[in-house]
Amino acid sequence: MSFSPLEKNAWAGLLVAYTDMNRKIEGHLHDRFGISHPEFEILLRLSWQDGKRMRLQDLAADSILTCSGTSRAVDRLVKAGFLRRELAKEDRRGAYAALAPKGVRLIEKALDEHVEFVRKHFLDAFTEDQMRTMANHWTQLEKHQQATPVPTVSRSIESQHLKSGQSD
Fold first, then answer.
1. Residues 6+ away with beta carbon under 8 Å from 140
2. What is the pTM of this model?
3. Rounded CA separation 52/104 (Å)
């Protein structure tokens, strides 16, 4: 079985657009702020939270990274002074990632440039009607994915490693 020409163009279009944008964003964030796209995502997600912190397991569940990848990225951000790790006092087993003042300053500065960058290299290619249609497509896709969940390969591999006692 293979994709129809229309399916192939739709799927390939997503892959090409994602790959191109991710590379551009990764390069911009690295060159301007010395952080990776996943590290930016972590800082951004924390900036959206009340108290500017999240449990590590919740952060990993929402992230594009695996649990261990999220933990390593948090460690790098802690070492750079952008985050703090805080023990979860309520259960003493978990931990929180919290924005440090240096991280707040970085995300505030980086976010403005990031929005400008995404507009210039992605959103400006579309009219408002096209963006509304695209937003509806993403909502439809998210609902479809929630109705037909399949574990991602990276999380499945990580889960298998955890069950067998292996690590990265």
1. none
2. 0.77
3. 9
Quickly tell me which residue has 């509806």 as its tokens: 136
Q: Count the neighbouring beta carbons within 10 Å of the beta carbon of residue 137.
A: 10
Q: Is 57 helix (H, G, I), strand (E, B) or coil?
A: helix
- Rounded to the nearest 5 degrees, what angle is found at the Cα of 136, between the Cα atoms of 11 and 130? 80
Domain spans, the chain: 5-125, 128-168
Give 125-153 pLDDT, tens digit per residue: 999 999 999 999 999 999 998 899 776 65
Interatomic CA distance for residues 1 and 8, integer angstroms: 12
Collapsing DSSP to helix, strand or coil, 122 comes out as coil
List the beta bridge partners of residue 95: 87
89: three-class secondary structure by DSSP: coil
From edge to edge, which strands make up the β-sheet containing 53-55? 53-55, 95-99, 83-87
Query: Between 66 and 116, whose confidence is greater?
Result: 116
Q: Which fold has domain 5-125?
A: Arc Repressor Mutant, subunit A (1.10.10)
